[in-house]
Amino acid sequence: MSDAESRPPQGEPPGLQDWRRLVQKALGDRDPATLTARTRDDIVVEPLYTGRTDSAVLKGRGAAPWSVVQIVDNPDPDEANRQALTDLNGGADGLSLRFAGAPTADGLGLPLDAAALRIALDGVDLTAIHLRLEPHPRAMEIAKWLTDLVEKSGTAPELTNIAFGLDPVTIAVGTEANGGPDPTVLAALIRDLSAARFGGPLAGADGRPFHEAGGTEAQELAGILSAAAWWLRAADEASMPPSETFPLLCASVSVNQDQFLCIAKLRALRLLWARLQELCDAEQKPLALHAETSRRMLTRVDVDTNLLRTTLAAFAAAAGGADAITVLPHTAALGRPDGNASALARNIQRLLIDEAHVHRVADASAGAGAVEALTEALAERAWSAFQAIEREGGIVESLRTGAFPARIAEARAALERSVTDGTMPLVGATLHPAPADDDATTTTVRPGQAETLAALGLTPIRLEDFARTAAS
């Protein structure tokens, strides 16, 4: 094929067929199908797409900055307070409180008492920041500590922006001996918090445990939807209609280095949320969406490479429209990060906002053929996975019987195979492997992290462990 034959007619922009001809020319005798890929949910990703003119901008954060949320998890409350104030003075405008025993605490965490909460927040203006209580088996008790603290401080609850971390999956761990979380009790708590005029989302649906246990993108989204459905049923028992319940809910997702897939995941969740509202005949209101960089992708060897992974993930979360983002410090797999690692985690986001101006475009990937196709396909897979969970009695029942964890285990096994055979490269481990030492090859899941959700079959993993096991 000559160059003239591969070009479109004079004056016409190149179309899809023109690009395909150029691709075929470059490939020679190779089949263009070799350029296609598949996601872990078996979604085909083509090498070429056309732009979409039929796509609407998804309602979400809009063209505004997201909340830069920093982690507060030091077991010493005074040190936790110093780090929190340093982060807020350094450009963060959100804090994520993690108590010992929380699935996201990774073996660390504030002492589980009201005094530790008070000390950690000493000097923090709760009306000026977004505050997150991370899901915990004793989340209801922690919520009571915080409401008492707000009341004693004289702060008007309606001026706060607090996500209370009331997630039915994590609470199920603390109530398993009593048959699981009591919808009536939790719905009453939500009603009381709403009546007290707290300004942030009061109940949550957390997809991160499913991601960290090895689940696929569709499984993570399905778990979030089913947790939301659990809340809707609980609220209905308390005579709270969906139109009142939806604005009280928020969701948390994990984001990793696969930026286009993560952008599509966040956008798919917004489509799914709108569909759920439509089926409940509720007013369409944007979901409060929090994204956190993946812990399972972090490595202990060649930790500086983690900075590349977390930056890609943070960009994907921002471009995908997250309202709040937490970047895990790049040394998190080694233990409690120092001040420099925390500052880098914070500054990754400040650079994306202040220098890259990623926030200035609402739904930046709207109309991009590749992202739109991935968004729609992922939403379809997630909706089917959600329906399967609901047929099993909902998220808590499906976890209790082991049905959903069994499917996640299958996905985890497939993920392990893809890491060990090199299909999914892990820079610093399977691709350009760095020299390992004895300390770095030990297990990277600490007991405090593994115990929290292990009873539900959601033990977290590390991709690096798969790679090191294969190499040994």
Number of helices: 18
Major sheet: 8 strands, parallel
Label the overall shape.
Answer: globular
Total number of strands:
10
Classify the beta-strand content into a percent band: 5-15%
Contiguous runs where pLDDT drops below 50 for at least 5 residues = 438-444
| Overall average pLDDT | 91
Radius of gyration: 23 Å
CATH topology of the domain at 67-359, anyone?
TIM Barrel
What's the CATH class label of the domain at 67-359?
Alpha Beta
Strand order of the largest sheet: 6-5-4-3-10-9-8-7
CATH architecture of the domain at 67-359: Alpha-Beta Barrel
Range of helix content:
40-55%
Can you tell me about this structure?
The protein has 472 residues and is of the alpha/beta class. It has 18 helices and ten strands. Helix 3 links the parallel strand 3 (67-72) and strand 4. Helix 3 packs parallel to helix 4 (114-120), helix 9 (217-237) packs parallel to helix 11 (259-279) and helix 11 crosses helix 14. The protein starts with a helix and ends with a helix.
